[in-house]
Design goal:
4-stranded antiparallel β-sheet, Immunoglobulin-like, alpha+beta, 2 helices, 3-stranded antiparallel β-sheet
Amino acid sequence: MSTPLRRAAMSLAAAAFVGSALVATATPTSGAEATERALTLSKSIDVAATGETLTVGGSGFDSTRGIYLMFCRQVGASGTAEGRPGGADCSSAQAWITNPGAGVPPSGTVAWTGDGTFETTLDVIGAFGTVDCRAAGTVCGVVTRNDHRETGVYDQDTFTPVSFAAEETTTTTTVPTDPEAPSVTVTPTS
């Protein structure tokens, strides 16, 4: 191979090597970075307003950290300080998803079932405290957020809306049974 041709081939090979290194550094290295966080609910539409237990599955979370699972009113965009509901915005139903270990009680928690996944149940209800999830303009749903060990961190916060079944209305008609009530006689005409 001639020298100019050899130089061109070596330059092309070097450019290909540098290009592949750039592609490799742009690829996410962990499952949590490559996967979007998601919740699946056994039911999210027409949930009984008097209360219902939902099965909740999560995926795409960082299972080296803990999260809380709660039922709350939506207060803003999820993943922001303004979007994180406070105590008065949430029902008392919650679960703590974390790994067993130091500082974690032996009961009362839900363990991660795999790399960033979990499954548990959560009780939801149409109204709690001063929140009525059925009121116009109010949206409630299942929330995830980083646990108490990571204050001010919102990267695992999610919101999945839940809507409640309309209350059934009944109409009662009362017919007077008073014998002294006036009566009406209708005579057909031909």
